[in-house]
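Quick board copy: two proteins, each given as sequence then C-alpha cells.
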Amino acid sequence: MTCDRLVCANCAGPVSEGRCHVCRAHRERLHRDNPLAALSPAALLGLLAALVAVALVAQRVATA
C-alpha cells in the first residue's frame, strides 16, 4: 500500500504530505515495512511485465 491516498485521522491531511507527527510516523512505518511502497504504479507495472517476460522465456527454454 502506498501513502498517496491515505488521510490522516489526526490532521485530516494527506499522509504523503506529512503535516503532523502522526502522518510522518505512519509514512515512515509504511516505507520501512514495505520497500515496494516507494515505487510508483507505473514502476510496479514495468516490474510485473519484466517478470512475465522472464517467465515466458523460461517456459520456452524448458520445452525446447
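And the next:
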Amino acid sequence: MALRADVIALGTVEAVEGAMSDDGRIIVTRVTLQVERTLKGGPRARVTLEVPGGRIGDRILIASGAPTFAKGDRAVLFLEGAPGGGRLSVVGWNLGRLEVRRDPQSGRDLVNDRTGGALYLDRDGRPVDPGRRGVGRVELGDFLRQVEAILEKAGRGKGVAR
C-alpha cells in the first residue's frame, strides 16, 4: 500500500459530508482530514478524500468494504489520486485506513492493523514470505518508522510525487 499510495498521512477527521458523486450516480462521503504528519505526498495541512457510500438525509448507501469515517477519528490513511484527476481515494478500501487509538492502560497511541495474523500469498497460493504476517496492533511511532523505511528503500519518501 505504501508504494501504491500517492499520499500517506496521519491525521484527525475534521469533517464528514454525504454527497452525490460528481456523475450523480451514487452517494459518496467526502472527508476532510486535518493532517498531523505526512509520510508521502508532500507537506499539507488538510487532505480531502472521497469514499463510496454514505448518507444524504434519509437515503443511505452502504458500500461493503469501503472505509467509514466519523468526525474526530484519528487514522493513518494511504491515499491515491482518482482516475482523471478527481478527489483522493483510499488505497485498498478498508485496508488503507488504519485507526489510531490511545491505549488507556499504557497511554501509548496504537495503530490497528486490520491484517493482524494474515499470511500473504502469491497468485498460486504459496506464501510470499512465510515470516511476513500482519501484526495486529502496533505502536504508532514504530508503524510510521516501518512505512518510512519502506518508502526510503523504494526511493519514494516525503514530498516525492509518483
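Board note added afterward: The chain has a mean pLDDT of 86.
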